[in-house]
């Protein structure tokens, strides 16, 4: 049964990114190039974030397993500031790529979320699902990885607009507000997780909340991107 659980979790973890990769209508060579830049950008950004977190994050006497037992505002603020480096890494990856905007956005978002899934969820699921007793948290993590893919696509759209729009987009104030949401909402979810654990709710409630937020960010960023592309095409025609 352990192998059945493992197969189910890995299927949920990997099928959605694979489908997203296959439905892309752009050339394979362009996709591979942008994906490579996205993976490199994610690894370097993550390494820098780990160094900064280890340097500035206050030490805690709690074990990692008890992290959700309390919520520390100072640590949350430091995490938000350090997480903002994702914007720089995403921007550098987009700038290094070549080709149509859709190719760049696809490659960077796919590579970023896939690398995060492998490093954060894949190996943990592989070890955890082979235990005699199955824990649904691994399935929740796999579904959460798919939600992160949706969120990363939205995040890459926002970074692209801010870069190509030269900060002159008419909706720039709203765009910056939505950009800040990508860094603030994870810490809010940590706070919600403290509440849910105290009242013995399952992680499925938090998963639904994460999907709702990610979907809202995706729809909004998609509208920003489409309006930006229309505005840009009109400028070229004139």
From TrEMBL:
**What protein name applies here?**
BOS complex subunit TMEM147
Q: Which organism is it from?
A: Anaeramoeba flamelloides
The record gives the membrane topology as: Multi-pass membrane protein
The highest taxon in the source lineage is Eukaryota
Q: Which family does it belong to?
A: Belongs to the TMEM147 family.
TM region(s), chain numbering: 6-23, 35-56, 76-94, 106-127, 147-163, 175-195, 201-219
Q: Does the keyword Cell membrane apply?
A: yes
Q: Which UniProt keywords apply?
A: Cell membrane, Endoplasmic reticulum, Membrane, Transmembrane, Transmembrane helix
- Asked whether the UniProt record includes Transmembrane helix among its keywords, one would answer yes
């Amino acid at each position: 049964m352990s192998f059945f659980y493992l197969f189910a979790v890995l299927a949920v973890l990997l099928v959605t990114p694979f489908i997203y990769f296959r439905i892309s209508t752009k050339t394979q060579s362009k996709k591979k190039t942008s994906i490579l830049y996205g993976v490199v950008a994610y690894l370097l950004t993550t390494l820098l974030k780990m160094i900064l977190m280890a340097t500035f994050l206050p030490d805690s006497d709690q074990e990692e397993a008890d992290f959700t037992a309390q919520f520390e505002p100072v640590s949350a603020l430091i995490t938000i500031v350090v997480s903002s480096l994702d914007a720089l890494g995403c921007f550098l990856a987009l700038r290094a790529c070549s080709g149509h905007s859709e190719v760049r956005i696809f490659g960077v978002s796919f590579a970023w979320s896939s690398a995060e899934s492998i490093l954060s969820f894949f190996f943990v699921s592989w070890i955890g699902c082979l235990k005699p007793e199955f824990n649904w948290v691994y399935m929740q993590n796999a579904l959460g990885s798919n939600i992160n893919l949706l969120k990363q696509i939205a995040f890459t759209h926002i970074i692209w607009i801010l870069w190509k729009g030269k900060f002159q987009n008419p909706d720039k104030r709203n765009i910056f507000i939505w950009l800040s949401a990508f860094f603030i909402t994870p810490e809010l979810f940590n706070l919600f997780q403290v509440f849910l654990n105290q009242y013995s709710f399952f992680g499925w409630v938090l998963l639904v909340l994460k999907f709702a937020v990610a979907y809202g960010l995706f729809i909004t960023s998609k509208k920003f991107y489409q309006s930006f592309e229309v505005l840009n095409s009109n400028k070229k025609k004139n």
